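Priority: medium. Attachment 1 of 2:
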């Protein structure tokens, strides 16, 4: 029987499976980065600086005792509510979608930004009467920097075509602009931090009709705790900060429809409602 000494090189497949389970499924740069070496260097730096500056040991410091490892430079942990308040303040300052995009690009308060490759702001026509809001970018969207470009995006394009629309006649965004690692569900805190940005995006785009794709964006934008199968199919409202009331049609997420094709007929009904509403408003 083969013995396991613990010294065998890890099986590459196991390692990759571990990475995938941990949400590490993308190479961000071509060459590996040795984070252990980087942090060892950072930790050594203050001691070296002190030594080269000829600093005497602090009074009371025990010369014979092994030196305590220098603490890494303190990174202030900013509570999520503070980040959400900062996001609200910043978002309210944007007077155009371009300004909002720049503000969001400079905002470091959402941890998802650190692991995402790009910020996925929007696609389509910001002047369109119809705005669609999804949940968060996936792998393809993160790579391209555009919402709904993967398989669910292709289905979304087909759904739009079925009611005579395309990406030039709709504006498309997400509640969260940064891909959660491994496509995990965004946490409530991450959603609250990003909420002011998507709300401002809606207020600035001024769509006549909103369609939410999937449960999270429906719940957030119509302020409901109901599940998507209960919410979908009937008109709800989203009220912007200035009091504008926008009709919202919550519908099923295209990724859900890919997994549950029998429910495509429900989404089809929802989009027929959207078409009728756009016609009623003189948009098509
Ligand atoms: N799913 C979403 O909710 N948004 C995207 O942009 C892609 C997939």
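Attachment 2 of 2:
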């Amino acid at each position: 029987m083969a013995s396991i000494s613990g010294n065998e090189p890890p099986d590459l497949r196991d390692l990759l499976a571990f990475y995938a389970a941990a949400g590490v499924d993308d190479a961000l740069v071509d060459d590996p980065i040795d984070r252990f070496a980087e942090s060892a260097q950072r930790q050594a730096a203050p001691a070296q600086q002190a030594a080269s500056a000829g600093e005497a040991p602090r009074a009371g410091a025990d010369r014979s005792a092994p030196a305590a490892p220098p603490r890494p430079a303190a990174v202030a942990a900013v509570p999520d509510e503070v980040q959400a308040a900062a996001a609200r303040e910043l978002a309210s300052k944007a007077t155009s979608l371009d300004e909002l995009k720049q503000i969001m690009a400079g905002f470091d308060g959402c941890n998802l930004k650190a692991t995402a490759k790009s910020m996925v702001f929007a696609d389509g026509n910001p002047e369109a009467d119809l705005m669609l809001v999804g949940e968060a970018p996936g792998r393809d969207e993160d790579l391209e920097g555009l919402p709904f470009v993967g398989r669910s995006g292709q289905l979304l394009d087909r759904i739009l075509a079925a009611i005579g629309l395309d990406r030039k006649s709709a504006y498309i965004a997400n509640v969260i602009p940064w891909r959660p690692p491994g496509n995990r569900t965004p946490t409530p805190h991450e959603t609250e931090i990003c909420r002011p940005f998507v709300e401002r995006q809606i207020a600035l785009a001024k769509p006549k009709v909103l369609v939410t794709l999937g449960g999270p964006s429906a719940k957030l934008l119509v302020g409901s705790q109901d599940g998507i199968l209960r919410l979908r199919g009937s008109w709800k409202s989203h009220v912007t900060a200035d009091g504008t009331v926008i009709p919202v049609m919550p519908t099923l997420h295209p990724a859900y429809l890919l997994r549950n094709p029998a429910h495509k007929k429900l989404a089809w009904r929802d989009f027929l409602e959207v078409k009728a509403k756009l016609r009623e408003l003189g948009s098509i």
